[in-house]
Write a structure and sequence with these properties.
249 residues; alpha/beta; Rossmann fold; binds S-adenosylmethionine
Length: 249
């Protein structure tokens, strides 16, 4: 699967380059750009979105009270969501393509006494370095959205693989009606890079999800729930997001 992903991406030319070598694939260049962004030490949210805290409270009411469910965040960045999950009593694992982000996540967890058992990896989440049926929940907060269609198809297969039967996926992804999301250089039918306007300007690769596409990606899951959140910023900037939860049978 990963080989197919990389071959597909080798055909993508002229992607945003930061510090990646010239022969890097679209994903590698994109991850290098994220790494360069984090190296500038931007102010990044230190707290999880309320949708995640609500989902965890409802779905894992016993976490930290005699049970220690295993959680994985894909594209964990500097660790705001892992910090929350560790505090809620989860055993945490995370993967991100940015070494700087993983270092920041490690620092924060250690500073707050939560880093002991954290399993943090640097890498492309199209290929997850954990065994099958390992996690009780896999979380994505706006990270899958920054990838091409082949990577997205690969990561959904990987999420299904690493979840235990009965385990949950929770994701937050950009919808295709977000202002400007498809205004950049087209990579595939639903993915662009270097969008020209809107809230995702400067965010590298972005993918605008439709509900039908997500239904296909989640076809092997059950208990699928879609919430659709629309926010208007100012007069003309829309942010549309899919809040998705689904269970592995
Ligand atoms: C918008 S940030 C979100 C970070 C974090 N989930 C949060 O809520 O703060 C997107 C993150 O996904 C990571 N990312 C995107 N595509 C990735 C991939 N294919 N493999 C690993 N990490 C990826 C980026 O490095 C970046 O840290």
């Amino acid at each position: 699967m990963q080989r197919r992903v990389l071959e597909a991406e080798m055909e993508v030319a002229n992607v945003e380059a930061a510090t990646a070598p010239p022969d890097a694939t679209a994903t590698e260049r994109n991850l290098a750009a994220w790494d360069a962004l984090y190296a500038q030490d931007p102010r990044w949210s230190r707290y999880p979105p309320e949708e995640l805290s609500g989902f965890i409270a409802q779905t894992f009411p016993d976490a930290g009270r005699g049970t220690t469910p295993r959680a994985l965040e894909i594209g964990c960045g500097p660790g705001a969501n892992l910090w929350f999950l560790a505090r809620e009593g989860f055993s945490i694992a995370g993967i991100d393509g940015s070494a700087v982000a993983i270092a920041r996540a490690r620092q924060r967890l250690a500073a707050e006494g939560l880093g002991g058992a954290a399993d943090l990896r640097i890498g492309n989440f199209a290929c997850l370095p954990w065994p099958a049926a390992h996690f009780d929940v896999v979380v994505d907060i706006q990270s899958i959205s920054h990838n091409t269609t082949p990577v997205i198809e690969a990561v959904f297969a990987e999420i299904h693989r690493v979840l235990k039967p009965g385990g949950w996926f929770f994701g937050r992804m950009f919808g295709d009606r977000t202002t400007g999301i498809l205004s950049g250089e087209r990579i595939d039918a639903r993915t662009t890079r270097a969008v020209r306007f809107g809230p995702l300007t400067g965010c590298g690769i972005v993918h605008g999800f439709s509900r039908i596409e997500l239904e296909g990606l989640l076809s092997r899951f059950t208990s699928v729930r879609f919430d659709y959140v629309h926010r208007r910023i100012g007069e003309s900037c829309d942010i549309d997001e899919w809040i998705v939860q689904a269970r592995k049978p």
